[in-house]
Amino acid sequence: MILRTDCRHFPGDHPCIYNKLEGILCDKCSYYNPVSYKILIIKLDAIGDVLRTTSILHAIKKKYPDSHITWLTKSASKEIFKNNYVVDNIIFFEDPDLSSRLFIEEFDLLLSPDTSPASAALASAARAKEKKGYKMNQLGKVIPVDDRGIEWLEMGAFDQFKKANKKSYQQIIHEILDLDYARGEIIINLDEKEKELRDRFYVDNHLDRYEFIIGINTGASHRWRFKQWRREGYQELISLLGERRNTAILLYGGYEEKEMNQNLKEKYSKVINTGHTNNLREFFALTDLSDIMITGDTMALHAATALKKKVICLFGPTSSNEIEDYGRISKITPTMDCLVCYKQNCDFVPNCMDSISADIIYKSIIEIMKEIQKERIDN
To answer: What average pLDDT score do residues 291-315 get?
Structure first.
């Protein structure tokens, strides 16, 4: 048999890319690269969390340079890994053959940084010589594989520990997985088609007339409804920005923000709506247009961070300390003692997010504009 089934490029059920492109057979292939160290990462959801967890890939490749990486996630996060050349293989939670595969395939190292029961159960079932992160015990409870996972598990169990935390999510999961933390970036790589979409939108909307492009993401997480800022706040901020002739305003959001964004567009003629039907990759491409992105603690924050945008993030019920700022994120939090509550219901009027004023955000925008101007001059 001339097949080399141990090659990282061998898919098994169809020709590999080099056979397709060059007609090469395994026995004479110069691209042959045997898999020597297999790593399985389990991070299922949510999309924004899966995206920011890609920051661990830099440290993994530094510690295990010859590793073959498989990532197990939910199919909703599939597009995150497009053009991600560090991850060799993606498998999905919804695959009906997943259980059989986990009982057969063996890995050298399993990395499971999530404390969800579904992830922990999969981590326990998977065959790996070494495991780091979390697994499930015989009682069906999530437990840390070793002492490195205790701190994060306790933060999830005790509100006061969560409030007291000063570490970013990135630092925490690097420590859990025994990886050196060097502030590795979240990964999004746009392809040429996506860049063309971005550039076409830029030309069609005459964005070259403006010195600054401000993005406003009005969406928020389904899980934490109090992450979203108030509608009147967006109106007040757009009114302030509208007085600046050199500034374009782009609105971002999905289906749930369709009505709000359309109303804002109708009320303020200067506003440009990027649309509510964009798929994830299109959303990434259009996010790349903004010089500054204003958003809550949601997926758009992680996307803008990955694309190395200046970001102003509004925090209330979730932890601002868990967000790695990479030197580009300005965090705005109200002065309330009850922050980092992670509540689904709130009796405070106004609540934490409603307490954030448009003036505070606008002042932050002006300061960042000055930084951008200086960077452009220096470059």
So the answer is: 97
Query: Would you state the pLDDT for residue 348?
Result: 62
Instruction: Tell me: pLDDT of 317 over 90.
Output: no
Output the pTM of the full model.
Answer: 0.93
Domain identity same for 129 and 230: no
Same domain, 198 and 330: yes
- Which tens digits make up the pLDDT trace of 118-158? 999 999 999 999 999 999 999 999 999 999 999 999 999 99
Parent domain of 244: 192-378
Residue 300 lies in a domain: yes
Q: What is the pLDDT of residues 35-77, one digit of tens each?
A: 999 999 999 999 999 999 999 999 999 999 999 999 999 999 9
Model confidence at 195: pLDDT above 70: yes
The answer to whether residues 72 and 149 belong to one domain is yes
Whether residue 16 lies inside any domain: the answer is yes
In contact, 85 and 202? CB cutoff 8 Å: no
- Three-state SS across the chain? CCCCCCECCCCCCCCCHHHHHHCCCHHHCCCCCECCEEEEEECCCCHHHHHHHCCHHHHHHHHCCCEEEEEEECHHHHHHHCCCCCCCEEEECCCCCHHHHHHHCEEEEEEECCCCHHHHHHHHHCEEEEEEEEEECCCCCEEECCHHHHHHHHHHHCHHHHHHCCCCHHHHHHHHCCCCCCCCCCCCCCCHHHHHHHHHHHHHCCHHHCCEEEEEECCCCCCCHHHCCCHHHHHHHHHHHHCCCCEEEEEECCHHHHHHHHHHHHHCCCEEECCCCCCHHHHHHHHCCCCEEEEECCHHHHHHHHCCCEEEEECCCCCCCCCCCCCCEEEECCCCCCCCCCCCCCCCCCCCCCCCCHHHHHHHHHHHHHHHHHHHHHC
Domain count, the chain: 3
Q: How far apart are CA 374 and CA 379, in angstroms?
A: 9
